[in-house]
Amino acid sequence: MKTVVSSLLTGLLAAALAGQTKAPETKSAPKAAAATWKPAGKIYAQKLVEDALEKHPDLLIFVFHVTPPGKTTNVIIASNIGRIGKVGDEDDLRVINTGKPNLEVNTYGDHFEVEMAEKDSAGKTIGALAAVFAYKDGDDKEKLHQKAEAILAEIEKQAPTKAKLFAPVK
Question: Contact, 115 vs 62, CB < 8 A?
Fold first, then answer.
């Protein structure tokens, strides 16, 4: 019995220590230190998230990926799933840099994500929007893509500048 308890404690200690090790930095996972941006209060982009979810009940997840003013790292600035300040990953940056949408079914096969470049009124890319819908095998992916593009067009009309996304709201 003493050996079993000792082995169990050793295993638990090893697991706890393993969790304290630093994961290596990769291209798609920049240093966590870069994810330090947080808004001082509620910003207009967050209001747009909340309004879009209310207007489009089939929209499950809605996320803004934008580089905040005075910063150089693209992060989540507004969402309905938290993660505010999380650094943009390779897919997010590819959408922003190429302007081409990312369309994909998640690994469980129950969500379809449409990530699109967001532009200001002058046509300049200012970030990316990710819209996620429920999905089942056989659903029309292009129809979901078009729905997301329509939501993006609504958002771009309401926020014609990057600065507007960061405007404080009550």
Answer: no
- Structural domain count, the chain: 1
Q: How many residues does the chain have?
A: 170
For residue 158, the domain's CATH number is 3.30.450.40
Is 24 a member of any domain? no
Q: What does the pLDDT average to over 135-143? A: 96
Contacts within 8 Å (CB) and 24+ apart, 45-52 = 45/77, 45/78, 45/159, 45/165, 45/166, 46/77, 46/78, 46/169, 47/169, 48/78, 48/155, 48/158, 48/159, 48/165, 49/78, 49/79, 49/80, 50/80, 52/151, 52/154, 52/155
Q: Check residues 163 and 31 and name the one with the higher pLDDT.
A: 163
Q: What is this structure's pTM?
A: 0.78
One-letter amino acid of 6: S
CA angle, 163 as apex, 76 and 126 as ends, to 5°?
A: 55
Q: Whole-number mean pLDDT of the chain?
A: 84
